Amino acid sequence: MNPLLRLVLLLAAAIGIGGWLLHDYLHQKTSFEARLDLARIERTFDERAPAAREIAAGEDYGDEMRGLFKWYFGAVRDHDNHYPEFKDHEQHWKDIERRHATGKIKGPEFDAYKANHDTVEDVYKVLSSTGYEPVLSASNDGQHFDFWRIERQSQDGKPKIRLDFAWWGPQRRDETEEHSDTSTTVHHLVVNASITAFDIALEGDPPDAEAKRKAKRAGQEAAPFHAEMHGGEPDLKITDPDHYVELFPANVVLGTYWLDLLPHEATHMHIDLATVTRTVQGHELPGKFSWDVPLKDDWKLAEGEAWAGATVETRDPDDAAGAEADASDEKPARHGRHHR
């Protein structure tokens, strides 16, 4: 081969390899910068969120949270515009779909993943639209518990009340597991978050004159309607939403309660909810939240319609510690399910 031609080819190859190495270096450098920028955004959110959670429920809390989410998702959009080649934040979910397609994740397990993913995505859309306006909200020792949606929906063809919540502030930690046989390191996110009590007391209006006359003719004493339900963990609980939708704001547990329609006689509902989360060192941080809620008509049964699972006892109106009407949704206590 002509020496000059050989030199030209060597130079061309060197330039090509050098260009490829430079492109790879710049790509890795930009990727590193993008990860640092996302870490900065998430760190700033983590720094600002506790102050918002300290604000008691009300307009100030709503304004603070909407402002926080407006900043957070605006920063994410600016990040994506600055690093467009790294704006795909669904890689983890796409990996789950690929593993399902190849049979590594079976049908029931994938269905549970998808149900959680769809639930988290719904909340993500609410937060990112700056339309986060909880129906009920309460704070306690740096934690905040929001019922962000309460409405009548159908579950398995039966009308019920759906209560969706966001519990802000539960503690979490990363655990590392070393596998010497495969020389790999596995990281596990552990979230210690339990709802230990979900108690509802239902009250009706004081009996009117007609009710008192009917009770008197029957040899009874008219008393206000009273009923109770007792439970704990919700029907659905997602302790790690960012496992299903990347960039979901951290330190929140999502979940859903389903309740049977409430008695027609009830006019108000009092909710007492107790939680516990644990620090990295194992210390318990309890939380107690309560709300008084006027009942909407579409949350209740029609007049004369029986309340499923109810047992009724006489309650002395002058004795608050006396017997009471008690009910649960088709069992003495609610027992929730935990989906991961």
Short description:
With 340 residues, this protein is an alpha+beta fold. The protein has five helices and ten strands; from the N terminus they run H-H-H-H-E-E-E-E-E-H-E-E-E-E-E. A five-stranded antiparallel beta sheet has the order 1-2-3-8-7, with helices on one face.
Describe it for me?
- By secondary structure, the chain is of the alpha+beta class.
- It has helices spanning 3-54, 59-82, 91-101, 107-128, 209-217; strands spanning 136-140, 143-155, 158-168, 171-179, 184-204, 226-231, 236-238, 252-260, 266-278, 284-294.
- The protein is elongated, with a radius of gyration of 28 Å.
Number of contiguous helices: 5
**How would you state the average pLDDT, rounded?**
81
Strand order of the largest sheet: 1-2-3-8-7
Indicate the low-confidence ranges by residue numbers. Answer: 320-340
Per-chain topology:
Blueprint: H1 3-54, H2 59-82, H3 91-101, H4 107-128, E1 136-140, E2 143-155, E3 158-168, E4 171-179, E5 184-204, H5 209-217, E6 226-231, E7 236-238, E8 252-260, E9 266-278, E10 284-294
Antiparallel strand pairs: 1-2, 2-3, 3-8, 4-5, 5-6, 5-9, 7-8, 9-10
Helix pairs in contact: 1-2, 3-4
